[in-house]
Amino acid sequence: MPWERSDAPWFMRLVATLGTVFRPSYFAAAMARSSVRPAIRFALLSWTLPAALRGVIPYTFTLRFGDGFRIEPVATPTGQAIAFDVLRATGLSLLVSAAHFAALALPYVSLARAFGSSWARTAAWRQMLYRAWLLPWTVQGLTMHLGAWGLSASSPAWAFRLVELADALLLVVVLVSMRATARIACGVGHAASLAVVFVPAALLLVVDGLLDAALAPFVPAPPSHP
Q1: CA quadruple 55, 60, 64, 70: dihedral sign
Q2: CA torsion 208→209→214→217, rounded to 10°?
Q3: Spatial contact of 182 and 196, defined as CB atoms under 8 Å apart
Q4: Number of domains, the chain
Q5: Strands (DSSP E) found in 51-184
Q6: Which residues, 6 or more positions from 116, have their beta carbon under 8 angstroms from its beta carbon?
Q7: Does residue 113 contact residue 21 with C-beta atoms inside 8 Å?
Q8: 93 in a structural domain
Q9: What are 90-147's pLDDT values in tens digits?
Q10: Beta-carbon neighbour count of residue 186 at 10 Å?
Q11: What's residue 42's pLDDT?
Q12: pLDDT (tens digit, 9 = 90+) per residue, 165-182?
């Protein structure tokens, strides 16, 4: 992976590694290495910020986001109340993002190890850590929230559908990368690789639904769209 090279500044290596997600088959073999430490460092740098920001828009009570990227206070909150509310939202967002990662990564690693080669466990963990940064952007994530923030109630219905499609496509990108790693780096067979990918994907969607229900009393009601 570009991140593991030492002949370029860390920021250039970070950007180059982010881009590898669009060439999953080409870089899948790079997941079959013995160390996960570089992948952990990359995940901490690339995942933490979007994971914290993912919930600011949907989980904040004191601010209203919408209509062309405007931000308006709800009622007349104090600066301290806004700061505490945003901090609460980012903390909640980190917990939700961590739950999403666990729901996808744990069964993926377990299944890759069961159906793959002896080094499949490490390769699968490297895969999930190097692609973790995409998860806060999908499954009702940053892509959908930022898109809805930029739109308004008068925006055409197709604009909201386009945002939802972009959110779904990012999940597809993650799943395609997971399958490529399962096949090439973990040694999982063609048919088994489908189960290795789609079982975690199904669990992720189930966990997301359960989280929505559990958090409903603690977050603002979502705005209605066309």
Answers
A1: negative
A2: 110
A3: yes
A4: 1
A5: 63-66, 70-73
A6: 123, 124, 182, 186, 187, 188, 196
A7: no
A8: no
A9: 999 999 999 999 999 999 999 999 999 988 999 999 999 999 999 999 999 999 999 9
A10: 30
A11: 97
A12: 999 999 999 999 999 999
- Please give the C-alpha separations between residue 180 and each of 89, 134, 197, in angstroms, as whole numbers: 35, 16, 10
- Give tens-digit pLDDT for 33-67: 889 999 999 999 999 999 999 999 999 999 988 77
pLDDT of 72 > 80? The answer is: yes
What residue type is assigned to position 11 of the chain? F
Indicate whether 67 belongs to any domain: no
Sequence letter at residue 105: A
| Domain contains 17 | no
Taken in order 166, 171, 173, 174, the sign of the CA dihedral is: positive
**202 lies in which domain range?**
29-50+98-218
